[in-house]
Specification:
This protein is 40% helix and 20% strand. With 358 residues, it is of the alpha/beta class. It has three domains: 64 residues, Orthogonal Bundle (Arc Repressor Mutant, subunit A), CATH 1.10.10.10; 102 residues, Response regulator (Rossmann fold, 3-Layer(aba) Sandwich), CATH 3.40.50.2300; 144 residues, Rossmann fold (3-Layer(aba) Sandwich). A six-stranded mixed sheet has the order 5-4-3-6-7-8. Strand 4 and strand 5 form a beta hairpin. Helix 7 packs parallel to helix 8 and helix 9 packs parallel to helix 11. It is elongated. The relative contact order is 0.11.
């Protein structure tokens, strides 16, 4: 099949980069200069530049232009991708990506972040992944829950590991790496007991609560009531939808007079964006945090809970997370045996849990 003009331009520029015509940190010729060189239109030139940017050898900055940011393609052992959902991009994902880049590139592997977003019709836009797969990957680290992405990798024959997923959902994955939360749960339960907490209500999306955590709570004499947030698996949710879902679910729960008159000591949110909406609903219901109700949540997507209230959180250091996973991936690429990394959450700010004693 004959190449289109943008592919031809991209290939020639890639060859120039590989030959060392432009060094790392240097700026490529402007769009007008490239148009004159190749006798092409602006659209074809810009599309060629985007293809190079997707491959990771250049970056494009507004008002600056295209800059050489990576080693020539021939100097890498191969390409490793980190696939995540761009709509969920946050401090956590950004730091994960930077950590992977540092570790993998130090080992000689070109690192390519691929952040996917929703298309205009609300479906997941997979075109960036298709473009990258056409160039080829040697390995993929995935932070997503969509089977359609895994199926694309399966068809392309690319090995991959999934972060924080379920083995049953990704049977073809080389490994599923989940966080080890035992120490975190133990720290949380100790803080709950210190505050004299006896009852928790968990607002959750439809997946099972960690059984060991539930057992530890039971052994500590703390009861858990689980309230499910309505979740449409056929729909692609945005972060705004998650916040609205948390607000709606918590408001409906405390609209019941029985719950309002006998509130729990602590509410636990499975997701920090659910918590943002849920905390606002608690305020609207007249509760003070944490004087009346303590709040605990997972917080792996950034500082969305900066609401001026004291909230205890599960947190994960994305740098140590990236180091542990990257070490495992490099071992896989080099054919060495390696145990699955242990990635632990920490529980912080435990003093904010529960009701304050007067």
């Amino acid at each position: 099949m004959e190449k289109c003009i943008s592919e031809t331009i991209a290939d020639e520029l890639a060859a120039d980069l590989a030959s060392g015509r432009w060094k790392t940190g240097e700026r490529l010729p402007s769009v007008d200069e490239l148009r004159a060189r190749f006798g092409a239109g602006e659209y074809a030139v810009r599309r060629a530049i985007r293809r190079l940017a997707d491959s990771g050898v250049i970056s494009v900055k507004k008002h600056v232009g295209a800059m050489v940011t990576a080693k020539p393609l021939w100097s890498w052992k191969g390409r490793v991708a980190f696939i995540a959902l761009g709509r969920m991009a946050s401090y956590f994902q950004t730091m994960l990506s930077l950590g992977f880049a540092h570790q993998l590139e130090a080992a000689g592997w070109q690192f390519v972040p691929v952040f996917l977003d929703n298309a205009k019709d609300g479906s997941l836009g997979l075109e960036p992944l298709r473009r990258h797969l056409a160039a080829g990957f040697d390995f993929v680290v995935g932070l997503f829950g969509e089977r359609q992405i895994a199926e694309m990798l399966d068809r392309a024959g690319v090995p991959y590991v999934i972060l924080n997923g379920f083995t049953r959902d990704f049977p073809s994955a080389r490994a599923v790496i989940r966080e080890d939360t035992r120490e975190c749960f133990a720290a949380m339960i100790a803080a709950l007991k210190k505050r004299g907490v006896q009852r928790i209500v968990e607002f959750d999306m439809p997946r099972s609560i960690d059984r060991s955590f539930k057992r530890q709570l039971f052994e500590a004499g703390i009861s858990v009531e689980r309230v499910m947030c309505k979740w449409d698996n056929e729909r692609k949710w945005t972060l705004g939808d998650l916040k609205a879902c948390g607000h709606r679910t918590v408001a409906a729960y405390f609209a019941d007079e029985r719950h309002r008159l006998r509130p729990p000591d602590v509410v636990l949110f499975d997701d920090d964006y659910l918590a943002v909406g849920g905390v606002m609903a608690l305020f609207e219901a007249g509760f003070r945090i944490p004087a009346d109700i303590g709040v605990v949540c997972h917080a792996n997507r950034g500082n969305e809970l900066a609401l001026g209230v004291s909230v205890a959180r599960f947190v994960n250091d994305p740098v140590s997370y990236a180091d542990a996973v990257a070490e495992y991936v490099v071992a896989q690429l080099e054919g060495r045996r390696a145990a699955l990394p242990k990635v632990a959450w920490r529980f912080v700010n435990g003093e904010s849990i529960g009701r304050h004693t007067k």
